[in-house]
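pinging the channel bc i need a second pair of eyes. not urgent but kinda urgent?? the chain im working w is below, pasted from the shared doc
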Amino acid sequence: MGYLWVKALHLFFVASWFAGLFYLPRIFVNLAMETEPAAHARLLLMARKLYRFMGMLALPALVLGLWLWLGYGVGKGPGNGWLHAKLALVVLLIGYHHACGALLKKFERGANTRGHTWFRWFNEVPALVLLAIVILVIVKPF
């Protein structure tokens, strides 16, 4: 029964973290296009708050995922190469999360050099990673 609770909470925090990973780059799209100072300041405030909140969601998602792996043995043993691929994608997501923080700092300093089109493409990364993770976890191709 404990396993199911840990799994359910892991999925909840992952979904919540992804909501931020989807929305923060969308705010960056708007920041890259915004010319009005008041609107720009409001978007920056939203981005700062969302980034902090995303970190609070990512931490339990990662801890609960480690608990499933190390505590309950999910993905251990032969024929579980899918988990190694999933963990590599999770590391990529952590890097993406930190890259969002670096981009936010550039916006705060007024040093952003990228246009809204770049941020629109950047915004697609977590969706593709999520698709790959869902396929790995459900299909377990290797």
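so Residues 37-71 form the longest helix (35 residues). and The mean pLDDT is 97. — does that match what u expected or am i reading it wrong
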